[in-house]
C-alpha cells in the first residue's frame, strides 16, 4: 500500500470512527488500531488530532467541490443542475454517511477545533467556491433570481443538511432518494426568477 | 534621432467634443517645451500659424494629426465636413493621434448617437470610423479626458523619432499595459476584501460595492498621477474604466453582482480562482484595516 493510499485509509477510517463515537471520545490509538498501524507510525501522517480534523474537513470539501464542479461544467439548465446537486448530495449521504455526518456534527458543532488556520471559509473553500459558481452562472443566465448569496446558500444547503440530519436520526419514513425530485423542485422554485 | 532643428507640423482637429482633452493637455507641466518641438499649424486654443478657415481649405498637409472628440462624418468645421478634413489630413500625416475616449472608441457621443458617431478607427472594440482600415496608423490615447502626460509621452516620442508600441486597440503599451489598480493606495483593502464605508474616505476598497473598475481597466492613472498628486481612487471615487472601449457604462457607482458575487473579476484571473481566493481572504478580520487612518471625527 502506498503512502497516499495509507493516508486515504486513515482518513476514511477516522471519518467512520468520529461519526460513530464522536470527535472527543475517539482517540488516535483507536484510529491507529483500526487502520492497523502503530501510534508512532500514525504520527508520520498526521501530527495531531486537530490537524487530522482539519485535513478531514478539507478532504470532504474537496470531494464535494470536485463533484459540484463537474455538474457546473456540464450541460444543462440551472434547474437540471439543482437536481444533479441534490442527487449527488443524497447519494453521498447514503453511501458515505460519515462524510456528511462529520461535516454536520463535528465541523459545524466543534468550531473550537477548527478555529485557528481554518477560519471562515478557509477549509471549506473548494465546496463554497463551486456553489458560488453555480449561483453566479444561474443568475447570469437569467434563470435564477438575484439575491444575497448567503440567503440562497443557506436555503439550498440548509435544506439538504436538514434532510440528511433527519435521515441520520431515522426520522424520515422513506430513503433519501424518495425525496430528491420534490426537494429539487422546491429549491428551484425558491431560487428561480419570477 | 531627427535634428532638433526639424519641427514636425501639427494640426489639432476637433470632432464632437466637450473640449476636455484640450483642457487636460493645457495642464501638462512641460507644455511650452513640448510645443517648442512642433510647428503648430492649427489648434483651437493654442498659438498657431493657421486659422480654422485656412485649415479647412485643406491646401497643405501635416506630419502629425491630433483628433479630439467623436467622429461625425457630416459635422462641419468652417464649411468642410469632418469626413473631408480627416480624410485629407490623416492621409498626409505620418502619425495620427486620437486624443481621448471619444476619438479612440466613440465614447459618450457614440453612446448617444451610435449610428452617426464613432472613433477614428474603432467604435467600441469594433474597427469602424474613417481610419478603420488603417488601425495601425492611429495611436489611441483613450481616457476621459486623456491624461496630459500620456499625450506628452506620445508627442515627445514622435518628436524624438521613437516608435510607439501599441496594443491591439491601438493604445501605447507603455501607458496601458498596467491596470488602473496598479499603484492604488487601497490595494491592501482589496487584498483583504474590506469595502469602503463612504465615498471620499481614505479607507476601504471601492471594488466590491462601489463600481470601481481599477482591476479591469488598462490605464496608468495610479502610476502617473493626475496633476502629479492624485487619481480618482485617491480621492475616494471609483475608477470608471474610461480608457476601455466599453466606456461609458451605466451605473458607474455600482458593482454588478450575481447573488453578491461580482459579475466581472480582475483581468487575467479565472472567476473560480478569484472566488476561492476571495472566500479565504474574507475569512480574516484584520482590525487594523477596520479602523480609520486618522481619527479626525
Q: Provide the low-confidence segments of chain A as ranges.
A: none
Point out poorly predicted stretches of chain B: none
The major pleated sheet of chain B works out as: 5 strands, parallel
Report the sheet-strand fraction of chain A.
under 5%
- Based on CA atoms alone, the radius of gyration of chain A comes out at 18 Å
Proportion of helical residues of chain B: 25-40%
Structural class of chain B: alpha/beta
Largest interface summary: A-B, 23 and 15 residues
Q: From the structure provided, what is the oligomeric state, counting identical versus distinct chains? A: heterodimer
Number of strands of chain B: 11
Order of helices and strands of chain B: EHHEHEEEHEHHEEEHHHEEHH
Q: Report how far the terminal alpha carbons of chain B are from each other.
A: 57 Å
Structure notes:
The complex is a heterodimer of chains A (194) and B (297). With 194 residues, chain A is mainly α. Chain A has ten helices and no strands. The termini of chain A are far apart. Helix content of chain B is 26%, strand content 12%. Chain B contains eleven helices and eleven strands. Chain B is of the alpha/beta class. At the A-B interface, α8 and α9 of A face β10 and α10 of B.
